[in-house]
Specification:
This protein is mainly alpha-helical and about 200 residues long. The chain is about 75% helix and about 0% strand. It has ten helices and no strands. Helix 6 packs parallel to helix 9 and helix 7 packs across helix 8. It is globular and about 55 Å long.
Amino acid sequence: MSAAPVGTREIGRHAVRAELARVAFNKFCLTGFNQVTFADLASAAGVSRSTFLRYFGTKEDVVLFVFDPVGDVIADALDADRTGRDDWARLRDAVESAVTFLVRDVQELVTILGLIDQTPALCARLREKQAEWRPGIAARLEKTTSPAGRASVVANVRAAAALECLWIVLGQWSAGGGEEDLGALLDAAFAAFSTPQSPA
């Protein structure tokens, strides 16, 4: 009986964080990331500074809140893929699942990515998140990676490369105003790691 209230609290907490992140992002866009303080964010959201800090410990995490589930989305997509294909093909489709998750509002995501690109602290924190996601993704790959003796190294390299493909693709897509075909960009990025075919 105790599980339901805990779940309800978590849902409520996520909803509050999402609303605070929305208000904060608007403030960052109007004023500039480095110019805005937590006191400014709290005032804009109509809460106390201490309340805001209970939900977000850093300004970087406020902006990057939308990316928090990406690692789990990719890992879950790998778990659900029972096609028996090679790891790289599975990773390509799992990364597309993350792209689909992120691109719910094209203009909003383009604006977020633009702010990240212009703010070194956000770029650095996003890199940290990427490193945090890699072990979970690699763990899913290790089950099917060969040679078995080097499975951990191979799986981690593939996971890292796939995440790098994701950010390069999103960067190019964002720079083009969100008009390019993301599926085609993903195909091009993942093909860069394929062995070139010898001419007939």
